[in-house]
Design goal:
- The structure is a homodimer of 309-residue chains.
- In chain A, the strands form 2 sheets. Chain A has a 7-stranded parallel β-sheet, with helices on both faces.
- Chain A is elongated and about 65 Å long.
- Chain A is built from 10 helices and 12 strands.
- Chain A is 32% helix and 16% strand.
- In chain A, helix 9 links the parallel strand 10 and strand 11.
- The two termini of chain A are 26 Å apart.
- By secondary structure, chain A is α/β, with parallel strands linked by helices.
- Chain A folds into 2 domains: 2-82 and 274-295, Rossmann fold (3-Layer(aba) Sandwich); 87-267, 3-Layer(aba) Sandwich (Rossmann fold).
- Chain A binds chain B through residues 89-90, 93-94, 96-97, 100-101, 103-104, 106, 109, 111-115, 118-119, 122, 124-127, 145-146, 148-150, 252-253, 255-256, 260, 266-271, 274-277, and chain B through 89-90, 93-94, 96-97, 100-101, 103-104, 106, 109, 111-115, 118-119, 122, 124-127, 145-146, 148-150, 252-253, 255-256, 260, 266-271, 274-277.
- Chains A, B: Pfam families: 2-Hacid_dh_C.
- Chains A, B: This is D-isomer specific 2-hydroxyacid dehydrogenase NAD-binding domain-containing protein.
- Chains A, B: One of its GO terms (molecular function) is oxidoreductase activity, acting on the CH-OH group of donors, NAD or NADP as acceptor.
Chain lengths: 309, 309
């Protein structure tokens, strides 16, 4: 098949598509597939009728959905696939790094040799800890694998409440009573959920107050899952013990924001996933998705445009 | 049995011994066992003849050996056990925390949003990495378990060259030719070896020069395993990529030492193991060791005083 790659191609991805026998062309040359890795403004206003599939080079498609781009072309029969799953391992490993950096109090280390402070404050994952995974898709499942040797007891929270392998229990996010137990009975909270009207400020002042005082939150999902002001207050007053934040609201977090100054908070600049890994993998995913499409099946990472994911 | 606990008891350990039916007494009241957690100066000059076993509350017994204390009492038939193994999980987890903090460039994060720097410089353990474990006892075996889900290829280095489970190969430290391959062919080096005349400054300028430029060293063994000046030079000149140091030479590292200023170096103040975990566990170990002794067997962590470990 022929594919176009907009707004500009990733070399590693193109190489994988070409190695599978596909040909890169311009959008005007009637491609079968568009591989797209830009934002809403980069998306072509019109697509040639030849384009049957759009492979998006990332997973968080909220902005394309909000801009009405997917709906518009889906109405014409174009099918969309995103890049969910190809960064499960990067994000899961980054999550573990944040969990350990916060628990082991790396940021509290002082040149003046505060060993006894760290002796008191260091916590270990292997020490009969309980962790709630808020959003338990592919990244969560990979994190469960990484956590298994530590014996961490994982509670999964997802939309459906459908059982997640490796979790001791799975809770549906809509079950308010069960969710109250989740907030109260875990020490670690890993936020991986997509941002929707239902999950906006999921972690607010009330939820923070319900957590135990040794709670640590790691957000590798979306900044808007947490009410930043409430989190800052909770950390300042010792309501909870720490946070690892790869995403924040606002993002970037202003350089003078008090969260930067807290040694209980480890921040990374939205780098839990890394573009060069995506570039290495999107080509292979596009090849597999095209095979599925060509054989009349649902693609591996096909987007349900109506459902919004 | 009756036990004494010197120089002063750890509550949690005493509770475990008492729960197993043993009685705490003073040294003068003819205990069967002495639980000892001090340094050479704290060791009693003479032990009552009733003392058959000394359970030491830590693993690194070099100082007691060097002071001749073990030999003196062993000559009289006293048997010694150390606390090897009861902090395998703390040190292994701390090691993983340092590996991830260095690889994920936590210390390079700037408030001024240096996302693209981290995109370029972040490395992942799962990304087909090779790691050499220098010293592959209990901690190393636990670390191999923690690393297994990442698919890290582990080469073990020990005294004997005897195969270590989970390692793709095991090299004897005395095999100079094989060791040259170890330094050249791994990206991660975890130092867990005891400090002996053979291992003093094992990582020196020559060894650092042999490592690949993306090499990361984590030292959770003894500070003297590394020539600090050579390491500082290697990091300053990019000969290697980073280091995680729980132990240093000298220790504490002076507050004005250049290693503190490098964002490629993550330092913890000798807190890979944590006393409160030892306190929780030494009692249970002493109980198990006494059972072995009482049934005429070798104790779980019996020290070979002649061999020195």
């Amino acid at each position: 098949m022929k594919f176009a790659f907009l707004p500009s191609p990733w070399e590693a991805s193109v190489a994988d598509l070409q190695a599978a026998g596909h040909e890169m062309v311009d959008l005007e040359q009637n491609p079968d597939m568009l591989v797209f890795r830009g934002g809403p403004k980069d998306f072509p206003d019109t697509l040639p009728e030849s384009v049957k599939v759009v492979q998006i080079g990332y997973a968080g498609i909220e902005m394309l959905l909000d801009a009405g781009i997917l709906a518009k072309h889906a109405a014409r029969g174009v099918r969309f696939a995103n890049a969910a799953g190809i960064y499960d391992d990067t994000v899961a490993e980054s999550t573990l790094g944040l969990l350990l950096a916060v628990s082991h109090r790396h940021k509290a280390v002082r040149r003046e040799w505060n060993q006894s402070q760290l002796f008191d404050e260091t916590e270990f994952l292997f020490d009969n800890k309980k962790l709630a995974l808020i959003g338990a898709g592919g990244i969560g499942k990979k994190l469960i694998e990484f956590l298994a040797p530590f014996g961490v007891e994982v509670t999964a929270v997802n939309r459906s409440g459908r059982e997640v392998k490796g979790a001791v229990q799975t809770v549906a996010m809509s079950d308010a009573e069960a969710m109250a137990q989740v907030w109260a009975n875990n020490e670690y909270f890993v936020l991986l959920a997509p941002l929707t009207p239902d999950t906006k400020h999921l972690v607010n002042a009330e939820v923070l107050a319900a957590m135990p005082s040794n709670a640590v939150i790691v957000n590798v999902g979306r900044g808007g899952l947490i009410d930043t002001e409430a989190l800052t207050d909770a950390l300042r007053h010792g309501t909870i013990a720490g946070a690892g934040l790869d995403v924040t609201e606002p993002e970037p977090l202003p350089a003078d924001h008090p969260l930067w100054d807290m040694d209980t908070v480890v921040i990374t600049p939205h780098t839990a996933n890394i573009p060069r890994f995506m570039e290495r993998r999107v080509g292979a995913l596009a090849v597999k998705n095209w095979e599925k499409f060509a054989s009349g099946e649902q693609m591996h990472t096909e987007v349900d445009v109506d459902a919004g994911y």
